[in-house]
């Protein structure tokens, strides 16, 4: 018997555009012989299902159900494809926990923690062979001394919103005089900011998921942006970044990276598919953790579909494995 799945998309941040594109890829590739899928849009004005031949139909938030042509539809599980809030920060996960509906992502606790880059780095620090760049975390409502930042961190550094995604509000600072402008830009997106020392190295992004209780590491993608760094434009503009999948790593590097990211997945108690970004430092080859994305993009230009293809797997089979493991 087919399971009834809600594919939840949209969101309340600037990342909703990416979420809609991700949901389109997922909807096209979910196995229709196993699942009946209803795409549910979440916006600031409401949650609704929009059939092709009808007006928007509101979701009953009391039990996350849908009444269609007089028939009440309840869902066996939810495939969450919302990047940013409230899909990636634990809010929706807490709601679904309360009403007893399983979902494809990490738990509410893990989602909330991993949305905070500073807290995440503190947790993963200590995993064998994992390094983190020196950083300072500051808060909008707590006074800080900009000179202390300049004295304690070596230029250049990255300034990024602590809880944002898609590199929105992020800057690379090469000159100390440019720091204040970078802080202002980041504070427009978040009330916490992370300032990190720059690590010179090759950048990679790797998908990790669980299937049949086994952690699977996908082939990593090497990222060579044409811009100064891998910003929003580079991420979502076709051709703006050179992407090599599988990325160029030695066998030793592949094995070491696989062990490290498996350790990250376990230590953060992840579920579903996540994407871990990292540098291999130029001089040493050391693994430097950048961040983890617990609802990675699934658009036509996203890394996860590229990596699934590089593994020799169809997206239909991949999404089936994700659903079966989590729902």
Automatic annotation (TrEMBL):
<keyword id="KW-0436">Ligase</keyword>
<comment type="function">
    <text>Cell wall formation.</text>
</comment>
<dbReference type="Pfam" id="PF07478">
    <property type="entry name" value="Dala_Dala_lig_C"/>
</dbReference>
<keyword id="KW-0961">Cell wall biogenesis/degradation</keyword>
<comment type="pathway">
    <text>Cell wall biogenesis; peptidoglycan biosynthesis.</text>
</comment>
<comment type="similarity">
    <text>Belongs to the D-alanine--D-alanine ligase family.</text>
</comment>
<dbReference type="InterPro" id="IPR011095">
    <property type="entry name" value="Dala_Dala_lig_C"/>
</dbReference>
<keyword id="KW-0133">Cell shape</keyword>
<keyword id="KW-0547">Nucleotide-binding</keyword>
<dbReference type="InterPro" id="IPR013815">
    <property type="entry name" value="ATP_grasp_subdomain_1"/>
</dbReference>
<dbReference type="Pfam" id="PF01820">
    <property type="entry name" value="Dala_Dala_lig_N"/>
</dbReference>
<dbReference type="InterPro" id="IPR000291">
    <property type="entry name" value="D-Ala_lig_Van_CS"/>
</dbReference>
<dbReference type="InterPro" id="IPR011761">
    <property type="entry name" value="ATP-grasp"/>
</dbReference>
<keyword id="KW-0573">Peptidoglycan synthesis</keyword>
<keyword id="KW-0963">Cytoplasm</keyword>
<dbReference type="InterPro" id="IPR005905">
    <property type="entry name" value="D_ala_D_ala"/>
</dbReference>
<dbReference type="InterPro" id="IPR016185">
    <property type="entry name" value="PreATP-grasp_dom_sf"/>
</dbReference>
<dbReference type="InterPro" id="IPR011127">
    <property type="entry name" value="Dala_Dala_lig_N"/>
</dbReference>
<dbReference type="GO" id="GO:0008716">
    <property type="term" value="F:D-alanine-D-alanine ligase activity"/>
</dbReference>
<protein>
    <recommendedName>
        <fullName>D-alanine--D-alanine ligase</fullName>
        <ecNumber>6.3.2.4</ecNumber>
    </recommendedName>
</protein>
<keyword id="KW-0067">ATP-binding</keyword>
<feature type="domain" description="ATP-grasp">
    <location>
        <begin position="128"/>
        <end position="324"/>
    </location>
</feature>
